[in-house]
Amino acid sequence: MKTSGLLLTGAALLALIASCATPKKQMADNLDEVGITCNPEVLVVKSGKIDATITMSFPADYFYDRATLVVTPVLVYEGGQRTGEPTIYQGEKVKANYITIPKSGKLVRKCVSFDYAPGMELCHLELRCVLAYGEKKINIPAIKVADGCNSTYLLAVGSGEMDLKPDGFQLVTEHTTETSIMFDVNSAYVKNNASNNTAISLYKSYIKELEQDERYRITGTEIVAYASPEGGVELNQNLSERRADAAVKTWKKSAGVEADTIAIRSMGQDWDGFQEAMANSDIEDKDLILRVLSMYSDPAVRESEIRNLSFIYDDIKKEVFPGLRRATFVVSAEHTGYSDEELLELAQNQLALLSEPEVLHLASITETLEGKKFYNRLAAERFKSTTGYYNLARIALLEDKKEVAASYLDRCPSDKDALNLRGIIEMRYRNYDKARKFFEEAGTPAARKNLGTLSILEGDYQTAAGLLEGSGSLNEALALILAGNPEKALSIATCGTPRDSYIAAVAAARMGDAERVQSCLAEACKDADYAKRAAKDVEFVDFR
C-alpha cells in the first residue's frame, strides 16, 4: 500500500492545531485557566482608601502571540461604580510597549486603589477584560475577585477631645494686706515720722474695713520683723527680735488695744528680700551679686563675698539695705464671693458689677449653649479675656464651625489647650500632618487622645492602641479591635449606648462569640442608623 504524502508527524499535527486556534478559543474561552487572586479577599477601608493587590498567573501556551488583553478593575457598589486604571498585556509578537506575556507564561501583580465613598460597604471588585487581535475585540464576562468591604475603622469618633478652660472663680479666696514701718541701720527705735505713722494708720483702716464687710472674715494678724543682711547672723537675729518688740509696743499705743491676738515673728537677716530687691534694682553689675547668692547658701560666706565686691557695695548699702530694715504688719482674711444663685440674680440687671472670673463662671453654670456663648463673649469683649475667646472657639467646634473657631483662636495666645483645638480643626479638614504637629506640640492628655484618634484615621492601629491606652474611651476599644485584640476591647466596650453595643458586637464577632454578637447587636440596633449599618456590615456576615 502506498503511503499518502499528506500524512503528518505528531509534532507537525500539534503545530497545525495550534495554528488553527483562535485568540477567542485560546484565551477568551479559557480564561478560567488564568489563576486570579485578590488580597484581601474582603476589601478593607483604611485611611479613606480601599487598596488591594490583584495577582494574575498566565499559564504556558495561554497568551496568543498577536493579541492584547486589556484588564480594568472596577469597584461596583450601591449607587455607582469606580473604574480603576486599566492594565494592558500583549503577546510576544505585538509591537507595542505593554506588559509582554511570553509563551512560557508569567505571573503579574497589580495594585489598585479607590477612594472610599458611603455605600461601598456592599460592593465587589471585578475585572473587566477586553481581548483584541487584528481589528477584532471580544468583551469577556466580568470576573469577580473580591466581595464586600470592611469599614470598621470609620466607627472612630474624630470630633476631638477638647478641655474646657477653668473660669478661675473661687467662692472663698484668701487675701493678705500688709504695710511696713522702717528702722535705721542697727536700730530698733520706731521713729515718729510721717512714713511710719501712715503705715500704722493704713493697717488700722485695713482691719476696720474688713471687720465691717460681712463677706470678709479676718483669719490672722501678725508682725514680722527683719534685718538687712549685714553685720552677722546673731547680731541681726537679735536686732529683728528687738524690732518686733518695738513694733508691738507701737501698735498697742497707736491702736489703744491689747496685742495678745497678734502673732509675732522675727526673721533675722532677710536674704529672700535682698535677692528680690537686687533683681528688681537698676544697680550695675547686679548679676554678680545674684550669682553669689546662687553659689553660696551660708549667710557668713554670702556677706563676705558681697563685701568683697567693693565697687558696688556702696550702692547696695544706699539702695537695697534700707528697705530691708523693717517690721511688717500683716492682716489675713477670707473673702466669700457670690454664690451661684446670687450670680444668676445679679446677671439679670447688675452685670457691670461682676469681675472676669464671675462672668466666666456664669458661662460655666449656664445650661444653654446660647447662654454660654453670651457670657464668654461678654468676658472676651469687656475684659479681653483669653479664656473667653478660647471657650468661644471650643463652642464653635462643638457646632462644627471650623472657620469661626479659628477666628476666635487668633484672638488668644496659642497655649497648649489652644494648640490642641488647632489640631482638631486640621484633623476635621483631614490635614493630618498639620494636625499631628499641633497635637504633639500641645502635649496635653486631650491632645494625646486626639493623636490616638488620628492614628486610627491614618490606619496605624497599633500606635493608636498605645496612645489611647487607659483612656477607657470607645476609640480605645476600636483601636484594640483593629490592632487584633478584641478580647481586651470587650473589657471597655460593653452593651450600653448604641455605639458602645455596636463596637462590642464587632469585638464579639471577631472572637466568634455568636451569642454575644446577637445580644449586643440587639441593643445597638435600637438606633436606626446602627441597624442600617449592621445590615450591610461584613463583620457580621457569618452571623446573619
> Which term fits the overall shape?
elongated
CATH topology of the domain at 172-336: 60s Ribosomal Protein L30, Chain: A
Question: Structural class, from secondary structure content?
Answer: alpha+beta
CATH architecture of the domain at 172-336: 2-Layer Sandwich
Strand content: 15-25%
Largest sheet: 6 strands, mixed
What is the typical, i.e. mean, pLDDT?
Answer: 91
**Regions with little confidence, pLDDT below 50 for 5+ residues:** 1-20
N/C terminus separation: 75 Å
Q: Please report the first level of CATH classification, the CATH class of the domain at 172-336.
A: Alpha Beta
> Nearest-angstrom radius of gyration?
42 Å
Question: What's the β-strand tally?
Answer: 15
Number of helices: 22
Oligomer: single chain
Q: What is the helix content?
A: 40-55%
CATH superfamily of the domain at 172-336: OmpA-like domain
Characterise this structure.
- Strands 4, 5, 6, 7, 9 and 10 form a 6-stranded mixed sheet that branches.
- A hairpin with a 2-residue loop joins strand 2 and strand 3.
- Helix 11 runs antiparallel to helix 12.
- Among the domains are: 132 residues, Immunoglobulin-like (Sandwich); 165 residues, OmpA-like domain (60s Ribosomal Protein L30, Chain: A), CATH 3.30.1330.
- The chain has 22 helices and 15 strands.
- The chain is elongated, with a radius of gyration of 42 Å.
- The protein is α+β, with helices and mostly antiparallel strands.
